Each structure stands twice: as C-alpha cells, then as structure tokens.
Amino acid sequence: MKTLQIGLGWFPECAGGLDRYYYDCCNYLPQANVEFDGLVVGSNTVESDSEGKVKAFATAEAPLLKRWLKLRSSFQQQITQHDYDLIVSHFSLFAFPVLNLLQNRPLVTHFHGPWALESDVETQKLIAIKVKKLVEQSVYKRSRQFIVLSKTFRDILHHQYGVPEEKIHIIPGGVDLNRFNIDISATEARDRLNWHLDRPTIFCIRRLARRMGLENLIAAIAKVRDRHRDVILYIAGKGVLATTLQQQISALELENNVKLLGYVSDEQLPLCYRAANFSVVPTLSLEGFGLIVVESLAAGTPVLGTAVGGIPEILQPFCNDLLFAGSSIAELAAGIDEALSGQRKLPSQNDCLAYVKNNYSWKTVARQIEQVYQQAL
Q1: What are the structural domain ranges in the chain?
Q2: How many other CB atoms sit within 10 Å of the CB of residue 238?
Q3: pLDDT for 300-342, tens place per residue?
C-alpha cells in the first residue's frame, strides 16, 4: 500500500508529540507493508534526514497563506508523480487546503487532538476558535476512517465533531524501547546531566502551557518541601509560560527545588527519564494519550499522572498507585509525598519495561494502523 501522509513538523526539528508520532510512523509503517511518503513544514534537510521519504513544502515561519500555496503545489507534484492508494492527514490545518485535489483518493485522519478545543482552553480569540473548528470539520467530513490514541479522543471526535463511532479506531501510540531503555543507572544518568546525585529527583517534560498543570505542580512542590527538604523537580520544555513559571518559583523561594531546563534534546531525554526517581504528568485537561507516560515507563521510570484524558487508560491497568487522586495542588502534593515516603508502591524498572513491551511496541501499533488503512480503500 502506497500512502502520502500530510503532517505538521519533522520531529528532529519540532519536539511535539504529534511530530514524534509522525516521525515514528515514517520509520515503522514500512515494516507493516505501508509505503510512506510525507509532506511537512520544515527545513531543507528534512528530505535527507528522512532518506527521501518526507519533503518540506515550506518553513514553519512562513505566513500561513504561503504555506498553503506551497503545500498545494507540492501535493499536486506528488500525486502526479506517484499513484497513491491512500492520503493520510495528521493535522487538519494542512489537509484542508488540498481537499479539492484529492479527487477519488480515500482520506484517513489521525486525530491527535481537538485543535479548536485546545485553543479554547488556552484562551485564544473566539473567532479564531470557530475558524479552526470549521477547518477541522471540513477535513473530517471528507475522511473515511479515523485513528485516535485513546477512548477519550474517540468520545471527543464523536460528540464534539459528529463522527460516527464505527469510523473511529482506537490505536495507542507506540514507543521505541531500544531508544529509551538505556543501560545505565539513575546515578550515572544524573552525573551525565550534571544533576544532583543524591537528592530525591522528579522529572516532568511538558509544553509550558496552561492546560499542562505546571503551576499546580510547582505549588505542590512547595508543600512537599516541608517534609522532603532535598526534593528537586526538573521541568523540561518551552512555551509561553516560561517567564510566569520562573516568577512563581522565585515567589515561592523554590530556586533550590525546581529547575526549568528549557528545551531538552532528543538524545538527552532518555537520560532525564532514567535519572528520576519518578516522573510526573500533571495535566489539567485534553490529554488525549500522553506519549510521555509511555516514554517514561520505557526508560524503566515510574510516572505519576492525573486521571485526565488518556492517562488513566495507560496507568490504571498497570498500577493504581501511579494515579493522583485529582489535579489540585493538594492532591498533587499528597501523591508526590506518598511516593517519596514509600506509602505508594511504585513498580520496578523491570515491571515498567515489561508493561510497555507487551502493550506499546511500535511493531504491534504499525500492524493495527495498516489494518485501518485497508478498511479505507
């Protein structure tokens, strides 16, 4: 089966979960007999980085209209040169401008999240939210089948966008065990990162945005510090809240307990997971899957998460002690305190690895995706 897959960005250049998923699809779907050609925004090195599979139609900085026009030109060139069985969308913004070029080619949508609803949570203007939803709905009306990462996203797609449930297929995200299961100890990982070697260490990687719950997490650490003076939280990620979070850290006098790392490279991320006693995902809303949950477990590191969106779908079948009672400051503080005090029984490194291997390997995920693609033909 030959597919043309329209993404957002190219993972080595963009650090988002959608971009990581697209990147992994590019690498693993060919093993399930799905040929992968792709179009994304990015630099002129995308094509060489992907061994010719993926091309950048414009830079991420280009104005939207220019990106759309460049995409239409690149898309037309691809479908003229290749006989694609299937067109695949990973982001509505870039599927929308080529809808009238599809002709009779079937379209499958990977629903990575409600773009309009996420904008609403992050307080964008009402008119922008309405336009985004119209773009999404236009793409979804044209799609034959949908792939979502969790029951939560299935329900949003069905109830908020009116997509029939029989068209929606739940396939969780996959993870590369070879990448995250590094053969070093937590102490060695901390030493390589220049982190404190002998302090209780927590790691969190998130886009620094409102719905991620980072303000609550930092406030919770102020409470945890009363009993665990040496606790240290490392937060990785970029976003609009960077200055706000740093101000909060200073106001709470947590400079010795909370460190904002900024962007963490793809090479360093497994080290960060391995270095921690446990990681934390404090999301407040719209967490469709939580790839970082699976990544942490793949590194052998337990992860405490809020019962939001797809997070409990991953953690509940594995270990109930990994779920916070809620997402409030007090509930986060209580859960972290219990984990540090041993009141919560966290799974071992081997248990974490075995769970991921049995449930979230890309080999299994790729086969499931291929089966949905076949249904759309």
Answers
A1: 2-174+361-376, 177-359
A2: 16
A3: 999 999 999 889 999 999 999 999 999 999 999 999 999 999 9
